[in-house]
Design a protein that fits this description.
It contains 29 helices and eleven strands. With about 575 residues, it is α+β, with helices and mostly antiparallel strands. The strands form three sheets. Strands 4-5-1-2-7-3-6 form a seven-stranded mixed beta sheet. A two-stranded antiparallel sheet has the order 8-9. A two-stranded parallel ribbon has the order 10-11. Strand 1 and strand 2 form a beta hairpin. The longest helix has 22 residues. The relative contact order is 0.07.
Length: about 575
């Protein structure tokens, strides 16, 4: 706080007399300028424990905050509820016989994130805004026990006053289960079915408004690139996770109860998993995204109101949920989700069967509801049991056999241990992100270090990194660590990217996305790898070095071991040669 306060002394505060050994509490009046500076410097990190990212200024309450900032800044303190914050520890000192906060560790605004973000965004948008008249009251709680912190911070958020209504969906934002899904979604590249040479990401919005806030921090050029890699159509939220998985687990009657109730039911199921530290891994993520594709496909098949809908669109959501679960029931949960995940689409043949099934389910629900309110009928477990016990005109296990896995494979996938590949994937992910910034950026950053002398950045490492990228060589661990530090640095200063690029005279080279290759090769089954090795050995399509490299990569993938990026790229290029033998990667 010393660095952000105008006089450099820190933030004057009042310490509340201790009533519990678990925490200390402080009250303070924070200048609006300090909050805006903090948000500019740390943004999403500052609000990490907040239940939502910035929701924009179109909403009723946030528009009111903006108008007060512009028109009545002197009334902001009495009008606004203030902020509730937490910290891991605090440093205080006496200045002129007044207690001041000089330093905070792991400072988090758990309630009042909209206020904080609004101060920054309003000042940024309207250049005539004067924050010097704005003050915000703050209640700061320092939780001394780290284990209790994870329990009490959500409770503080839950019970604190709020200007925007907070739902159970919002309050679950910091659940480790959803934090892990967010981590997976930022790293698991998938193929674009419209362009097989392009990779994309499904964007999990753990906190409401994350997608929009990420875009708001970027330049127009960066926004375009971000949207290409993270299309809004692939954005999903916590209630979607509950919907997709409960549909897979044959509970459409809960999905029909609406997003809030369905989500509460889902969180009850995962509570025990979280307590045992059984968090989502690679297999879960494939299952989740494949079911998302299935849900979205059936939703599109239902059609839109007044255009091509098969029936009453007010019954669309429940009809889709029931169809998904009925399909999984009829196929005994044997649909090859891994294949759907890999291809990122449902083909025309399967789509026609799903359409026929959707019409059947829709008509069944309307008929069985017989006069009662259909939306209420669909919420009952007995309604789902009735559909399950209704015979369908086709034996889908026989008709769709090419889309199904065996019972043995199904059991194997269900029992397969979720392996934590974070350390390996983090390394591959960082390398991929470094490469995607381009040669021009890294050469420019080398020059930027020389001219601006930013703290903690070594020119010689930057020089070596540029050389390795230019010659397509593996990066050293030191260069990867350096690259990650630079990526974090420019993430907080996105406008710096274009400035840095302008310093370089080099041209960018074609990018080969290592993470995309890594994820693609991870999807190759044991049987397919055996076939690859057999075909390559018999046909001599690979030379000895190529074959040895492919075998090394396959072994490393199986054992979840680290792989050098150039080995991955060479293996991928080698495997492309097998296309003429009917092997597609």
């Amino acid at each position: 706080f010393e660095n952000f306060s105008e006089d450099g002394k820190g933030l004057q505060c009042l310490q509340v007399p201790s009533i519990d050994e678990m925490y200390d509490c402080y009250l303070a009046i924070v200048p609006g300028e300090i909050l805006a500076k903090l948000y500019k410097e740390f943004s999403n990190e500052l609000l990490e424990s907040n239940v939502r990212a910035f929701l924009g200024q179109a909403g009723k309450f946030n528009k009111g905050i903006r108008d007060t900032i512009r028109n009545k800044p002197q009334m902001f303190l009495p009008y606004n509820n203030g902020i509730t914050a937490t910290a891991e520890s605090v440093e205080t000192k006496l200045v002129d016989n007044q207690l001041v906060i000089s330093r905070l560790y792991d400072f988090q605004i758990v309630n009042g994130g909209q206020t904080t973000a609004s101060l920054y965004h309003t000042q940024k948008k309207f250049k005539d805004v004067d924050l010097s008249k704005i003050f915000v009251q703050m209640k700061l709680t320092v939780i001394k026990d780290k284990e209790q912190k994870n329990i009490e911070v959500p409770n503080i958020s839950r019970f604190a006053n709020s200007q925007n209504k907070v739902s159970e969906l919002d309050l679950s934002s910091n659940n480790p289960y959803f934090v892990q899904i967010e981590n997976l979604s930022r790293k698991k590249y998938v193929v674009n079915p419209e362009n097989k040479n392009q990779s994309r990401l499904w964007f999990f919005e753990r906190a409401n408004g994350q997608y929009r806030e990420t875009l708001n921090k970027q330049t127009p050029a960066q926004q375009k690139k971000f949207k290409e890699q993270n299309p809004s159509a692939l954005k999903f939220v916590k209630s979607d996770v509950a919907k997709y998985i409960n549909g897979w687990e044959l509970e459409p009657h809960f999905v029909a109860q609406g997003s809030q109730k369905n989500f509460i039911h889902y969180t009850k199921k995962i509570t025990d998993l979280v307590s045992k530290n059984k968090l989502p891994g690679e297999n879960f993520y494939r299952k989740l995204i494949a079911n998302a594709i299935l849900f979205k496909t059936i939703d599109q098949l239902f059609g839109r109101k007044g255009v091509n809908a098969i029936g009453d669109t007010s019954l669309k959501a429940l009809s889709v949920a029931y169809t998904v679960s009925y399909f999984h029931h009829l196929t005994n949960n044997r649909i090859d989700l891994w294949k759907i995940y890999e291809e990122q689409r449902i083909d025309d043949v399967l789509s026609r069967h799903l359409y026929k099934l959707l019409v059947f389910v829709y008509n069944h629900i309307i008929t069985e509801a017989s006069g009662s309110l259909i939306s209420e009928y669909a919420k009952r477990a007995t309604s789902w049991e009735k559909l399950k016990n209704t015979a369908y005109s086709e034996d889908l296990i026989s008709v769709l056999s090419e889309y199904l896995i065996s019972e043995e494979e199904k059991v194997q996938r269900e029992n397969e241990k979720e392996i934590d590949t974070n350390n390996i994937e983090d390394s591959v992910f960082v390398i991929s992100e470094i490469q995607k910034m381009g040669l021009k950026f890294w050469d420019g950053f080398r020059i930027y270090i020389d001219t601006h002398k930013p703290d903690g950045f070594n020119w010689s490492i930057a020089f070596d990194l540029v050389g390795r990228l230019n010659k397509n060589r593996n990066l050293t661990s030191q260069e990867i660590t350096f690259g990650k530090k630079v990526l974090d640095y420019v993430q907080e200063n996105p406008a710096l990217i274009d400035e840095v690029k302008s310093l370089s005279k080099l041209e960018d080279k074609e990018i080969i996305e290592v993470k995309f290759i890594y994820d693609k090769l991870l999807l190759v089954s044991k049987d397919d790898w055996k076939r690859i090795i057999d075909v390559a050995s018999q046909t001599k399509v690979f030379d000895n070095l190529e074959l040895a490299n492919v075998k090394t990569v396959q072994t490393a993938l199986a054992k979840k071991e680290k792989i050098k990026e150039q080995a991955l790229i060479r293996a991928y290029e080698s495997l492309k040669k097998l296309k003429k033998f009917g092997i597609k990667i």
